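Reviewer 2 asked us to include a model.

Predict the structure of this chain.
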Amino acid sequence: MTQIIEGRRTEFAIDPAILSLLPEQGSIELQHDAAGKVHRFHTHPVDEILMIISGRLNFMWDGGERIVGAGDTILLPAGTLHQSEALDGGAVYAIATRPPVQPTTETSTYGENELSRQ
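Predicted model (structure tokens):
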């Protein structure tokens, strides 16, 4: 059964760096991985930004590997093959997703209109 629990809190403290990840339309997910949790190699159809809040991850991507920790940010373009493993103590991180930026192609009719006037 759906319930709404009335809150008394009206102010929440969220690190501005986490808030800056929030896309114009979208969401941020908080992920907690226990030590040893592995997200096997996979891809996503959207861009991802991961900000490590606490703990450490062994992060691997097509062509690289690095241990990341609190304060590190990972910019992961759509389609990038990647894997992560939470190290001792686990890891907490924020994940923001957004559609990949599409190159804009501006079509100008100025030249066509000028030619048609001649």
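Residues 23 and 69 are 23 Å apart (CA to CA). Residues 107-118 have pLDDT under 50 and may be disordered. We have added this to the supplementary material.
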